[in-house]
Amino acid sequence: MSQTISFQSLHRFTSNAFLNVGMSEADAATGADVLATTDAWGIFTHGTKSLAGYLRRLQADGLRAKGRPRVVREGGGWASVDGDSSLGMVASVFAMKTAIAKAREQGIAYVGVHNSCHFGAAGYYAWLAAREGLIGISMANDIPSVAAPGSRGSITGSNPLAYAVPAGNRRPILLDISTATVAGGKVYAARARGEPIPANWIIDGNGRPTTDPSGFPQVGALLPMAGHKGYGLSLLIETLSGILSGAAVTWGIRSWAHDDASLPTLHGAAFLAIDPECICGRDEFTRKVEGLIDEIHGSPRADGVERLIVPGEPEWERYDRALSEGIALPTDVLENLQKAAEMTGLKLETLFI
Amino acid sequence: MSQTISFQSLHRFTSNAFLNVGMSEADAATGADVLATTDAWGIFTHGTKSLAGYLRRLQADGLRAKGRPRVVREGGGWASVDGDSSLGMVASVFAMKTAIAKAREQGIAYVGVHNSCHFGAAGYYAWLAAREGLIGISMANDIPSVAAPGSRGSITGSNPLAYAVPAGNRRPILLDISTATVAGGKVYAARARGEPIPANWIIDGNGRPTTDPSGFPQVGALLPMAGHKGYGLSLLIETLSGILSGAAVTWGIRSWAHDDASLPTLHGAAFLAIDPECICGRDEFTRKVEGLIDEIHGSPRADGVERLIVPGEPEWERYDRALSEGIALPTDVLENLQKAAEMTGLKLETLFI
């Protein structure tokens, strides 16, 4: 079951919801653009499905509708941003724009954010940089949900990492991953269907890998992607987005979805921008990125494989279709938008016009 | 079979070998320190085992014994280094030192290297930064040996990535990984033993995952770690170490082990340094990193697991043992050191004093 909504309607509805809880027009538009774009990419787990959850915190003041992210300390190639408990998307867009401006001067910049919240899809912020011709890298920490090798429970968050590389006239190379093997949602789906899962997805309550999803997430934890490699990368993300940024780390973070909505969640995030124009010239850079993409597209394929994909291509194809034909929103997203409508006095029907 | 050699003897032997092919004392010591430290960490695949291979190129002039890496362009937070076809370790140490100096001023720095060669263990250069109190990140490209999802053959190199985070009085957190599921050496070992391998290690000549290692590497390719995630990360590494640096990419790189030794291999590498002292203060940073390490060590463990490991701990324990008790060099390393001795007029026996 799904229903097709135009990108513009979804954007406007989301923006109006944010306006109705007291956000400024500019901040509401920023939040709406992140969430609607994420849905347009087809990443429905991180788009407007979460709107009602963010609104709950905005109404309870754990997220501050009038929060103003600001640079509290800075140097040539870096800045430390206090998110002021504003919507995670507002703090994150501010931070990446700060990184972009600094990278244009210094070649590269790091901006860490503390006092933020769940920022949605990491890829959006990386794309902000790539739209401006820069390489963007974004990451964040979150409440622990992922095991370390040998642990009985969760050690780190699913700590997402995204990057975007500008590719001239083509859409940027864009990767947005969690450092867990899979998202918890895939485990829930298997549990709902009563199906076993691969042995590298979760551990049970005794810390042993299991193919039985029925106990998750009451006991057990997700497994890191590629074992110790994903665990190691999640600790780098924790360091850059939690420690260096001055945010909370691991168990010091609150769940944006489940914990007391009147309290800040204290998430951290990190944004890097690198300007090829400074370092090797934009034309040279673009020509070589295009060459790499062509090389991949032209490489021999396994039997039955129609094409080789450069990261982001499926998302960009869905995005183009979303903008021209609308987005087929899944039922669970629509149900959450109904909640958002009720919370903010909007009518869900406005989505369909 | 293995033989125990003191760290100092291994370092001196390696340095003498480099001296005997015309390198300066300083460069020979640099190369020896990288390779002997790698062996001390127990990463024998990337230590002095490769010495004879590097000497072959140095003697044939594909690697230039008197090569002088230099900054050819730079800005506040970045530099572009021409490796001058010097030993990869010499160019890489120069580049990371450049990144450290710039990061101390700007908070973060990127240094790309072109006209380099295989740089051994990426972790050494990350550690250089951590020894100075900075976060270090290092990466490089290499000849293609790893598939993309759906490809019939190799698309990217095994593109290594390492980072090191300073941890006060403790040894740095240190992760050094390839973006392939496993190193080719593990496939060779299974083939030699006539054993099947897990289905996520390699593809066969038709691009299909296989548990049969017997055809590798004549046909097939390694698989990326965690599927599209490892593939995506390898493209970011290719971008930063190959494209942005002005180096060769993918099939434009020559094999340092197998291709004509009189030609440069044209590898690229990238080094990032981030200075916590600038951004949040070294004491605050260190206290939180130590807290994270303590938290991991104190977390509940699965049945039968003796301890939870922070990345780098096994390497540092081997390192400490190596410096106090010597390094138990495997037979294949000793055989390669015998070759190195013959190539440079050294006596292998000098290793044992």
Topology, element by element:
Two copies of one chain form a homodimer.
Chain A: E1 2-5, H1 7-20, H2 25-40, H3 51-60, E2 70-75, E3 78-82, H4 88-106, E4 108-116, H5 122-131, E5 135-140, E6 161-167, E7 170-177, H6 184-193, E8 202-203, E9 209-210, E10 221-222, H7 228-243, E11 267-274, H8 276-279, H9 282-297, H10 313-325, E12 327-330, H11 331-344
Parallel strand pairs in A: 3-4
Antiparallel strand pairs in A: 1-12, 2-3, 4-11, 5-6, 5-11, 6-7, 8-9, 8-10
Helix pairs in contact in A: 1-2, 2-4, 3-11, 4-5
Properties at a glance:
homodimer; 353 residues; alpha+beta; Hypothetical Oxidoreductase Yiak, Chain: A, domain 1; Ribosomal Protein S8, Chain: A, domain 1; globular
